[in-house]
Amino acid sequence: MDGDQIGRVTTSQTTFDVLDAVKRLEEACVTDVANELGLAKSTAHRHLTTLHDNEFLVRDGDAYHLSFRFLDLGEYVRGRRPLYRMASRKVQQVAEETGERAQFMVEEHGQAVYIHVALGDHAVQTDSGLGRPMPMTAVSAGKAMLAFMPRDRVEDILDRRGLPRRTEETITDRATLFEELDRIAERGYALNDGESTRGLRAVSVPVRGPDGEVAGALGVSGPTHRFREDRFRSELPEYLLGIGNELELDVQYR
């Protein structure tokens, strides 16, 4: 790789770092970004100006914040596959019928990413923002997808992302995880019993695309006191298996 190629890669990385910094800070001036990233003010200014000129940032006085252009890009990504579009209706249905928080997640870069979330009448607010990545090994949707992936793909994900601990209940041992994935593959659904957030339980089922490969996971979550044993381990799994099957049929015969 010659010097010009290295320069282009480095410049692109700095641009992404600047965007992440503006997001973290919510809004930021040149000095804020320079201090956050350890850049010269002139470098921060060039990147901010370029992003503003290309309408990825909005400027309000001396401060910059992310523009709605990212919303347009996100909606394009979320709707690029028929399954992703159809999943929206099922997520809303699950939220309305259970009264809880429903979500559809997909795997991207070895993480589970929220692409649809709907809140029922009794849903609790959590950190499940659209587009937010979560460790696949700590959420029921992630485990539901891992259980139906080829084992070498799972190994690759674990090598890259590890088994990060979210709570004292999170599985952090690879052998224990594979035992859990075998149980999930046998019964067809995954459970999360406080593994991502204390006091929160969740149930998810894998959803396959037209090619038969797992393409995402549909789930529902709520507080432990409403997700008691029968509902958590029997009623909701059976319900979601049916809804997931409907979604797969909708995609197959669209």
Summarize the structure in words.
The structure is a single chain. This protein is an alpha+beta fold and 254 residues long. It has 2 domains: 3-67, Arc Repressor Mutant, subunit A, CATH 1.10.10.10; 78-252, 2-Layer Sandwich (Beta-Lactamase). 50% of the residues lie in helices and 20% in strands. The chain contains 9 helices and 8 strands. The chain has helices at residues 3-25, 30-37, 41-53, 69-78, 82-98, 140-146, 151-161, 174-187, 229-252, and strands at residues 57-60, 63-66, 101-108, 111-119, 133-135, 190-193, 200-208, 214-223. The strands form 2 sheets. It has a 6-stranded antiparallel β-sheet with strand order 5-4-3-8-7-6, with helices on both faces. A two-stranded antiparallel ribbon has the order 1-2. A hairpin with a 5-residue loop joins β7 and β8. The longest helix is centred in the last third of the chain and has 24 residues, at 229-252. It is globular. The model has no long low-confidence stretch (mean pLDDT 92).
Relevant CATH superfamily of the largest domain: GAF domain
Low-pLDDT residue intervals, each spanning 5 or more residues? none
Strand content: 15-25%
Please state the average pLDDT score: 92
Question: Radius of gyration, Cα only, in angstroms?
Answer: 21 Å
Class of secondary structure makeup:
alpha+beta
Biggest sheet, open or closed, and with what strands and sense? 6 strands, antiparallel
Strand order of the largest sheet: 5-4-3-8-7-6
Share in helix: 40-55%
